[in-house]
Amino acid sequence: MDPPDDDNEFLAEILLTPRTTVSGIMRHAQGHFSYNTAKGATVHLTKLMSAEFQKAGIRVNSIAPGYFPSEMTAKKSDERQKSHVPEEKIQDKGHVPLARPGRETEMGMSVLYLAKNQYVNGEIIAVDGGVLNVLAGRQDFVAATGEFVGTFWFLFFGYAGHLMVLDETATTGNLGPSTIIYVSLAWISGGFFNPAVTFGLSLCGRLPWQRTAVFVPTQMLACITAGAVVKVLFPGDIARINTTLAPGVNVSQGLFAEMFFTSYLVFVVLMLAVEKSRDTFIAPLGIGLALFVAEIPGVYFTGGSLNPARSFGCAVAAPSFPGYHWIYWLGPALGAAIAAGYYRFVKMCHYEEVNPGQDASNSEEFIARSNSGRETSEA
């Protein structure tokens, strides 16, 4: 490199070109977890080295190449140590926009850019021909299909079970305690397929807003589909399973009840499923039980929505919208915001230090972690 022109420039540049690839950046295993994990480590290494070495006046950047000719991609090289990848091989992959491998000149220009630009430090430049954009869109599509299927099945069985309970108790003319329990059980599995939960995950920074923009319309389409299928398949008036307020409950009370019910559910989702611990594998059980507890008062007083999709799907299928239908959107949204806000608060306060031995596997480890946490707090 040329010597710096003044004291405000870095003295040297480290470029980690051969060690990083786009596999370390993408959110897709590509069938080889260990390779992508190793490349992800080099991405993190670039950031760590950049932060430390800049104190000595050294910049650290890296290039994450896509499909370029090499002995790894071509499996061989010629006598000049040059490799060749046929364009047909790249075209067969189906996710390279230019439908060809990268060229030496394109890599060279990237190297010169990072080598000469003193104002770039700690960056990982993807030279991939747009592969990451394609794979990101494909991942969103696959995730959206899963969200549609999950939301559809949750609401299909929820609507059908709810309708069955109401038909069985039609002769009594009232919603007795046992009926409320049965209806609550019909909705016990649906903690995740919920626009309010999706909204809360994005508010607390655990789900990209791009995913939320995809998931919420998908969930609404699924709820309409589920409502239509239940209406066609089963006898009974689907309008009867609309979420409506009980006699004596005004709109304001219904709004805030839905807000508190939903804040409870969303916070449980955040602490059991989003926060990772040794008990995360049973998070669905805890979330289902939390939803069941919220539904016991909710089913009677507000219809127990806690989920805009649950209220919207059957209302569209009926079609029958109560004049206060909006509370089943605003209430859950406010509840999700409260849960996300408190989640951020406890994370900021390092809640795990309050009970440092909660994940201990034995009594000795519990005592050791507890003592460590006590020493930290005293310090």
Automatic annotation (TrEMBL):
InterPro entries tied to this protein: Aquaporin-like (IPR023271), Aquaporin_transptr (IPR034294), MIP (IPR000425), NAD(P)-bd_dom_sf (IPR036291), Sc_DH/Rdtase_CS (IPR020904), SDR_fam (IPR002347)
Membrane topology label: Multi-pass membrane protein
Keyword Membrane belongs to the record: yes
Record's keyword terms, sorted: Membrane, NADP, Repeat, Transmembrane, Transmembrane helix, Transport
Main location: membrane
Localization terms from the record: Membrane
Region span, Disordered: 356-379
Biased composition regions of type Polar residues, renumbered to the chain: 358-379
TM ranges: 141-160, 180-201, 213-234, 254-274, 281-301, 326-345
GO MF term set: water channel activity
SUPFAM superfamilies per UniProt: Aquaporin-like, NAD(P)-binding Rossmann-fold domains
GO CC terms: plasma membrane
Reactions this protein catalyses: H2O(in) = H2O(out)
Family: Belongs to the MIP/aquaporin (TC 1.A.8) family.
Name of the protein in its database record: Aquaporin-like protein
Species, as recorded: Xylaria arbuscula
Taxonomic lineage: Eukaryota, Fungi, Dikarya, Ascomycota, Pezizomycotina
